[in-house]
Amino acid sequence: MGAHRKGAVRAVTAVHPEPVAPTGPAAPAVPAGRDGYFDVLRAVALVRVVAYHVFGWAWASLVFPSMGVMFGLAGTLMARSLRRPALTVVRGRVRRLLPPFWFWGFFVVTAMLVHGWMPGWRIVYWIVPLGDPPGSAWAEQAWDIVWYLRTYLWFVLLSPLLLRVFRLSPLVVLALSLVPVVLLTYGWQPPEGRLGSALTDLATFLFCWLLGFAHHDGVLARLRPLAVVLPSLAALAHGGWYALAHRSAYGGTYDLDDNPLAQAFWSAGFVTLLLYAGKWVPDRPSRSRLVAVFNARAVTVYLWHELALILAVPLIDRFWEVPAFAAYLPLESQWFLFAVGWLLIAGFVLACGWVEDVAARRKPTLLPGGRAARMGG
Q1: Cα–Cα distance between 360 and 79 in angstroms, integer?
Q2: What span, in angstroms and rounded, lies between the C-alpha atoms of 205 and 226?
């Protein structure tokens, strides 16, 4: 699928809206304090993503399927915000997403143009990423991450309709949401290229997005533990089995990020258990400033982390020219690359994170924190 492409250093996240007061009859909203649970999950997902793209651990996608978690959280928050007029909510999500994307894209596109790249008409996807924007092979590691923004944007645009359909028969619609990825695997083959990649990504994470609706509406919390645990374990078993049994068809790996069907079922089971467990989490916000920064700068971390990891490699190469560094620093260690990468990510957060504040119509700050700094999705 379009989620990840292999490389020496690879990369991934989601977005988070401001608290919304009820404005009319609707399903019960998630308690505001439980945002602390969401914030911690999102921060863990971001750290896991960067680690995965440094170390390339196939098992990391099983231990914590970050993208499924992120889409599940985003679906919950989208359903909560849709207590307001749909057009207002969608416009707000798009407004918060595009300026950071444009700011990052300006540097990526400029670098590709300088290196001889000449775009065609698809350059419009660098303005609104409804499709995968074009790019040169030289910078593929940098721009390939836009698949997530494209998928997220389509879910946002479809959410008013999806939420209406979901509420007609929540459990039935939730179960049927796994059918598209099954059909794309065993039946109709999606077309090659951008369209097929987009359809596959939407089908892969549709269940997780709708699961967010179920969490927000209280559908998940009202189920008895066995009614949640048994289907979740069955989904995990099927996803794990499919990943292991079909390794030869996916380059010899059981990595979920290369296997849409396995990703869909494993994420379905994992995220269901994770969100269901949230009913026992105390209703209080996270007090961690670091967690607050991760959430308020999630888009910045996601967009710039690949560039940080790319730049970390030549930077470490220069360290070899300093005898003391070469003698005492573990320059060949991937853990050292991981550490240097995070230092550069922190630099990008300080230098570029203010764009998220401007997009959210907040006063720009270097290091946000607290509830006021939470970002919209």
Answers
A1: 19
A2: 24
What is the model's pTM?
Answer: 0.88
Segment 128-133 long-range contacts (CB within 8 Å, at least 24 positions apart): 128/98, 128/153, 129/101, 129/153, 130/154, 131/194, 131/195, 131/198, 132/2, 132/194, 132/197, 132/198, 133/105
**Cβ-count burial of 56 within 10 angstroms (0-12 exposed, 13-18 middle, 19+ buried)?**
middle
Q: What are phi and psi of 223, to 5 degrees?
A: -75, 150
Minimal CA–CA distance to 222: which of 267, 275, 186? 275
Instruction: Indicate left, alpha or beta for 374 from its phi (over 0: left) and psi (-120 to 50: alpha).
Output: beta
Half-sphere exposure at residue 72, Cβ-oriented, CA atoms within 13 angstroms: 30
Task: Name residue 105's amino acid.
Answer: G
Helix (H) or strand (E) holding 141: helix 140-143
Residue by residue, pLDDT tens for the chain (377 residues) are 444 443 333 333 334 443 333 333 344 444 444 578 999 999 999 999 999 999 999 999 999 999 999 999 999 999 999 999 999 999 999 999 999 999 999 999 999 999 999 988 889 999 999 999 999 999 999 998 999 999 999 999 999 999 999 999 999 999 999 999 999 999 888 777 778 889 999 999 999 999 999 999 999 999 999 999 999 999 999 999 999 999 999 889 999 999 999 999 999 999 999 999 998 887 777 778 899 999 999 999 999 999 999 999 999 999 999 999 999 999 999 999 999 999 999 999 999 999 999 999 999 998 886 543 443 43
Q: What is the pLDDT of residues 310-328, one digit of tens each?
A: 999 999 999 999 999 999 9
What 8-state DSSP symbol labels residue 145? T
Q: In the structure encoding, which two tokens stand for residue 364, read together?
A: 């720009």
For helices 298-319 and 35-55, the axis angle rounded to 10 degrees is 30
CB 184 within 8 A of CB 190: yes
Distance CA 253, CA 62 (A): 12
User: What is residue 338's three-state secondary structure?
Assistant: helix
How far apart CA 175 and CA 2 sit, in angstroms, is 24
H/E run at residue 314: helix 298-319
